[in-house]
Structures are given as structure tokens and as C-alpha cells.
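User: Hey, my collaborator sent me this sequence without any context and asked if I could get a structure. I don't really work with proteins. Can you help?
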Amino acid sequence: MPELPEVETVKRQLKKNIKAKKISKVWSDNKKMISNADFKEFKDFVINEEIIDIKRTGKNIFIELSGKKTLWLHLKMTGHLIYFAKDISRQRIKEIEQDKYNHYIHLIIYFSDGSRLKLSDLRKFARIKIFYKKIQTILKNRQKFGLDPIGKDPLLMSQKEFIEVFKNVKKPIKTALMDQALIGGIGNIYASEILFDAKVNPFAKTNDLSKKRLARIFLSTQKILKKAIQQRGTSVSDFRDVRGQKGSFGDFLQVYQRAGKECKQCGNIIIKKKQAQRSTFYCPKCQS
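Assistant: No problem. I've predicted the 3D structure and written it out in C-alpha cell form, which is a compact way to encode the shape of the chain:
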């Protein structure tokens, strides 16, 4: 599933490419993607509206339209957005389409200048909701609008706020980092990498960790997420950015999906264990 760095990458690229564009037409072969409206209402909702702004909270994308309207989008497991400029070359289109993960197009938004935005989703889990409200109104009362509660963005937290959130949590620290109600945007990849960088065992009980160790996790969270955003996220399988390209943070992974390989820091073998129905990767020596 795209995590904070991937979704932040998408948000930034969308702002650069589609802000101020006007929607002229939409197409979909997966009308169940629209969770709270039928496709006719969705078309009426978006056509002739202008893109005002794009924001991200956790793994959620909000696209504000003219007319005090907002689209909510969650890419779920395998969704990604690809932008095609009006003057994109045939060669570039061919390059994008040769990537097997860009084959599963289920939604196209056409803009009045001839450009378009496509949603590719192998497993068809991505979801969209429409709201006749501005973004800030929705964010102030997520549950009222049928959206899950979400913790503060880790990149907007102070060290003190981070410690306050986690100091009394009784679940293992990796599970806590992935709890979207506590902190928004961190998933399996980055929780593993953050805890390796902080030299903390993923199975350690969160409320047993000292403030000093929680502070170390906070610093590693900031470091790993910012570096991953610089590299446009991680593409271990499906994720592609808005240009149809892979993120390159996979080149910097220390433990995730490296089970059975030597730790790059100490030479010990990376271990993989199940934790809360997810695979956890860690070095038993560095993270003892």
C-alpha cells in the first residue's frame, strides 16, 4: 500500500500538474470505486469544475474543486495515478504502457486543455468519495463525513507531541507506528526502516520504551520519511509516481524484504517474523 512518502509524492506532483485545470469529461469501467454516489452523480459532481487545491492527510488525498466541492481518494493496496500532458510524446506513452503495473486503468479524468489523469489499480481496491464541502470542513470532522479517524501527520509533529502520543501505548512499537489513529501515514515499509534506523526492536512494548528511545524513534521517523519523499517513495511492486515512474527509495532499504540477507551494518542475518498479520523485518543484533 502506498504510504506517506508515496502519497506525498503524488500530492506534490498533482499540485504541479493539474491545479487550476478544468475537468471536461470522466470515464470508468469500475463504477463501484465511487463509494458514496453512483457514477452519474460523480460525473455531474466533477464535470466543468476547476481543481482548486490538493492536500494530503496520512495516506489520504483530498482534491478541492470549485463550487465548494471535494474529492477524497485512497489508493489502497495497488492504486496509482498517472498524468498525461496534452503534448506527451507517443514514445513516452509507449514507455509508460510497457510497465505492466500501468495496464489496469479504471478511471480517466479528462481536462479541458487535452491533458488527462488516469487511475491504474491492479486489485480494484482504490476508493473515491465526493463531498459537497470544502476540505477544511471535512478535516475538522472526519467521522461525520464517514472517514476514519487519523492521528497527526508525523512530519508536522514536535518531538514532545510524538512522545506524548506513544508513551502510554501498550502495543508493540511497530504496531503502534502503523496505527493510523495514533499517527497518520506510516505503514509496513517505513515502520520497519524507522525502527532499524533507531536501533529499536519492533516487538518492544511501546510503554516500556524510555523517553530517550522514543525521541530516537521520532528523529528516525523524520529522517526516513523525508529521505523517502526526496526519492519519490518506494516501488517494491505496484507504486508509480504521477509520471509513471518508480520511486527510488528501494535502493536505500536496510531491512524491509531483506530476510535471509546480511545486515548492511553488522553482517548478521535479517529476520522475518509475523506481527499482527504483517511481515516484520529486523536485525536481531542491531535491534536487540
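In plain terms: The helical segments are 4-18, 39-46, 90-98, 135-140, 159-166, 173-177, 188-198, 211-230. You can pass these C-alpha cells on to your collaborator as they are.
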